[in-house]
């Protein structure tokens, strides 16, 4: 059924692979030529006192887990608030209008997830800045 596509597709893939291989070798030659030109004009006195090994004794904190945790907590709180909001909306209505209730509930879920997720990231930012201020002192 798809026999008319296989031949051009295979040909295209083969030519793309060959082109990528040639481009890889050409780029390597260009980079090596640039490195050789830089190496000829390099002055060692420019690096005096600027190159040093990294210090592993100083603990470095990564705040990525704090940001992810606060974001996920905010999303969870947002989902919980939206769930209770939709539960209260459903309990207060006697008649069932599916389209309007669906629109309101989906808006409530989206807005509360975005709101509380953003608040979680703001909390993470405040905690991070406070920790950096304490670290600098």
Automatic annotation (TrEMBL):
UniProt xrefs under Pfam families: DUF6249
Superkingdom to which the source organism belongs: Bacteria
Domain DUF6249: start-end pairs: 10-128
Protein name: DUF6249 domain-containing protein
Keyword terms, alphabetized: Membrane, Transmembrane, Transmembrane helix
Database matches in InterPro entries: DUF6249
Ranges that cross the membrane: 6-26, 70-89, 109-127
